[in-house]
Every structure is written in C-alpha cells, then in structure tokens.
Amino acid sequence: MAEIVLEGITKRYPDGALAVKDVNLTVGDGEFVILVGPSGCGKSTTLNMIAGLEDITEGTLRIGGDVVNDRSPKDRDIAMVFQSYALYPHMSVRENMGFALRLARTDKETVTRKVEEAARILDLTEHLDRKPANLSGGQRQRVAMGRAIVRSPKAFLMDEPLSNLDAKLRVQMRTQISRLQQRLGTTTVYVTHDQTEAMTLGDRVVVMRGGVVQQVGTPQHLYDQ
Ligand code: ADP
Ligand code: ADP
C-alpha cells in the first residue's frame, strides 16, 4: 500500500514566496500521476515536499497511510529521479545501480540479482560493466532509473527526467518509462512541462498554475475539453 495523500499542502519559502497553495491530491496505490504546468507553477516544489527535500509549511502528507511531514527523505521509502543523472563517474553501471543496496548491507547475491533484473527491464544488460562516461544520454538516464528501482521503493518521484535528452530519445524513453511503471506497478509522481509527456505517460494528469491545482483528469478527459 503506497498511496500518497496531500491534504491542504502549502509552501511558503523563507523569502515569503508562496509557491504552493492548499493542494489536495490523492495518488492511488500503483497509480501514475503527471504534474504538468508552466515554469514556476509549483510542480517541483510539490514533488520536493513529497520527497522530503523541502519542508511543508502547512498541510498533511501521508505515504502508505503514515503522516511523513517530519520524516527525512531516506525514511520515506521513495526513490527520486532527476533530469541530471548524478551517477558516480568512477563506478560502473553495475556498481552505480547496486550502490544503495550495498549501503543498506544487502547481501551480495541479492544485489547482483536485483541489479541484473533491473538491467534486463531497462535494456542495460550489455552495458553493466561500462562507466557512465561511455554511455549515451538515454543510457545514463536508464541507469539513474535502475538505481531507483533496485531498492523497490514505495513510490517513484521523477522531475523532468527526459528534459536533457533529444527528441528521438525522449520518444524511446517515454515507452521505456511506461513499460517500467506497468511492469512494476509502483506509485509514481512525474513532473513535466511537456504536454506530450503529460498526455501519453500517466493514468491521470494534474494541471497546476500559480501554485494551485487547476484541473485533474485522465489524459482523455483533459484532451476532450
Ligand atoms: P516549477 O517546478 O513548476 O517550475 P517551482 O516549484 O520550481 O515551479 O517554483 C514555484 C515558485 O516558487 C516559483 O515562483 C519559484 O520562483 C519559487 N521558488 C522555487 N524555489 C524557491 C526557493 N528556493 N526560494 C524562493 N522561491 C522559490
Ligand atoms: P541509446 O541506446 O540510449 O539510444 P544511442 O543510440 O545514443 O543510445 O547510442 C548508440 C551506441 O553508441 C550505444 O551503444 C552507446 O553505448 C554508444 N555511445 C553513445 N554515446 C557514447 C559515448 N559518448 N561514448 C561511447 N559510446 C557512446
């Protein structure tokens, strides 16, 4: 059970900027929700509050039924994928993907099994022994996703994961992400300003504007309007 529930979530930055205003949203267990809207509308701030990277000014955040407002990011059991890959350059793909598991003292065989399983899903098997410098942008982004999925988190949070890639790769990666989410069934919140991603990737789209939720619906429902 990894429902994410935002109740009256508000963010005021220390300089006084009101970035997110009274957002109410439930992301169902296994659901794939896209947060979309123009630059500055509060998407990243909302995602960062779910991740625990920004404090919540007002409101209640629940993940899997627990109130997590005061929990550190690592105690929320979520995995985040950013547009910058932040891979460790001196480590191979295999080492990058297994890093968090090794840190958590997972036994060697389990690390190998989980890394190889993730590599299969993400078409990275033949690249496991390469260093990030020898990979394409799309491959690096897949390694970043692999690193997230090996931990089997309760939820994935993705912030514009495709925005550094060229158009052709973005199309390929959209397919990969859909496949991955369907296969794993992990609750996912995905931030983008790209309408195509919003309309093709998720189960439900949340349109934000000026820090508030303006519309919520299935892609089909929003498209028909
Ligand atoms: P988006 O992800 O939709 O582009 P953000 O969540 O990054 O929007 O930003 C929402 C609003 O909050 C913007 O007006 C932005 O300028 C402001 N903001 C973002 N980060 C900070 C910060 N660290 N301090 C002050 N204001 C911020
Ligand atoms: P993708 O499979 O992500 O679409 P590309 O089509 O961009 O990757 O890359 C094709 C091949 O070229 C891949 O096997 C990749 O490993 C290799 N490649 C891409 N960029 C580099 C690089 N900077 N250094 C070495 N090999 C690279």
UniProtKB/TrEMBL annotation:
Signal peptide: none
TM ranges: none
Translocase as UniProt keyword: yes
Top-level lineage group: Bacteria
Keywords: ATP-binding, Cell membrane, Membrane, Nucleotide-binding, Translocase, Transport
Location of the ABC transporter domain: 4-225
Entry keyword annotation includes Membrane: yes
Molecular-function annotations in GO: ATP binding
UniProt name for this protein: Sn-glycerol-3-phosphate ABC transporter ATP-binding protein UgpC
UniProt organism field: Streptomyces sanyensis
